[in-house]
Amino acid sequence: MTYHLYSHNDLDGVSCGILAKLSFQENVEVRYNSVQGLDFQVERFLEQKAHNDTVLFITDLSVHSENEKRLQHYFNKGGKVNLLDHHKTALHFNKYKWATVKVEYEDGRLASATSIFYDYLKENNLIDGNPAIDTFVDLVRQWDTWEWDRNNTIEAKRLNDLFYMIAIDEFEDRMIQRLQKANSFSFDDFEEKILNMEDNKIERYIQRKRRELVQTFIGGYCVGIVYAESYHSELGNVIGKESPHLDYIAILNAGGKKIAFRTIHDEIDVSKIANDFGGGGHAKAAGCSMNEEAFKLYIAETFPLESLRIDAPRNQVNLKGTKDGSLYTDREDHFYFIYLNSDQEWVLKQDKIILNGFKTFEEAERYMKRKYGAWLVRDDVFEKYKSNNKQLKS
To answer: DSSP secondary-structure letter at 129?
Structure first.
């Protein structure tokens, strides 16, 4: 029996290839594809490589409607095919006997293609599991589903960093050798060294890109837009946490003509936004190609906007949510003061005019930042403002 595995070219997709090589060794041909490249591979397989003694696996990707029909016809004729995916946009494939699409496990954990494929291999006695493989698979799962951030599983992020720092072939070889021999999963000394260097590089990159962020409203959402070719997940995560008033972050790769969407909010599903432009993905991480409509909305109409200013980072006095109040300003030199009044209501003032009251400080700041794009001023500006305005809370 020979095996063919066609998978995505990110960490989750390549990890499926690693599991396939651990299971089938020299009897498997693995090809990694972009979303657009998969259908060509599937058509080529059906035309040239499909035989009674071959098994086709498709992981972390799904085919277009025409290939969907071709695969069903191939299966009806006795062909062996398995599509294993975890994206919401692929759930309709579950109507076929040859497909398994699972977004979430019964215990609440989110699924990845690697974890689904590993389950399949174990259930069919096609792989000898061990603690190292178990850990590796779960790190991939946590990274791809963004659970690592909630669980603070830094090793998952570092695994993805390593994946993008070395060639895919080298990554495969390193992981296969380690998972075959080790009783536990860890990085070696060389990997730890280059990962530490990468951490510093990522931090500097994010600081630079953070200052290029613009803010606008698209389709009713308050969106942060930034141009970046690297570190999309890290960049989206940091910006999202620093600017929670933004519903999602759109990261534009002009050279690759792609848009990555990221959000930290449970109530926002960026896969639906990506789907509007012919893309897809997960609730908190998705993407699409930059078609004409996306170009108009995210580039042409936002290019003239000025960058969003960053809140003063090293304040000791003018802090957010304090009883003494927090002072902000905007590009038109208005001042905004958020304070707690005697009725335990958070009041927002613009200069000397009370705009509104809110139940929480976070609600007040969110309203102000979305509507006025204001930022927290430095301590020295706050002290000067207080000296010129003796009755801040009136």
So the answer is: -
Do 166 and 229 have their domain in common?
A: no
* Residue of 33, 36, 39, 37 whose CA lies nearest to 17: 33
| Residue 375: inside a domain | yes
Statement: residue 280 has pLDDT above 90: no
Q: Is the backbone of residue 230 left (phi > 0), alpha (psi -120 to 50) or beta? A: beta
Distances in whole angstroms, Cα of residue 378 to Cα of each of 83, 351, 384: 55, 17, 10
Output the CA torsion sign for 49, 9, 116, 61. negative
Q: E strands within 40-195?
A: 54-59, 80-85, 99-101
pTM higher than 0.85: no
Cα–Cα dist 338/329, whole Å? 11
Q: In this predicted structure, what is the pLDDT of residue 390?
A: 66
Higher pLDDT, 17 or 1: 17
- What's the CA gap between 2 and 191, in Å, rounded? 34
CA distance linking residue 318 with residue 320, whole number of Å: 7
Query: Is 378 part of any domain?
Result: yes
CA distance 310 to 54: 56
* Strand 280-281 with 28-33, pairing: unpaired
User: How does pLDDT run across 220-260, given as a tens digit for each residue?
Assistant: 999 999 999 988 988 999 999 999 999 999 999 988 899 99
Tokens of 128: 């000898």
Please answer whether residues 269 and 334 qualify as being in contact, where contact means their C-beta atoms are separated by less than 8 angstroms: no
Which residues are paired to 348 by β-bridges?
Answer: 338, 356
Looking at the structure, tell me whether residues 132 and 68 fall in a common domain. yes
Mean pLDDT lowest among 44-53, 65-74, 181-190, 198-207: 44-53
More confident residue, 176 or 146: 176
Q: DSSP character for 308?
A: P
Pair type for strands 28-33 and 54-59? unpaired
Q: In this structure, which amino acid lies at residue 101? A: V
- Judgement on whether residues 136 and 285 belong to the same structural domain of the protein: no
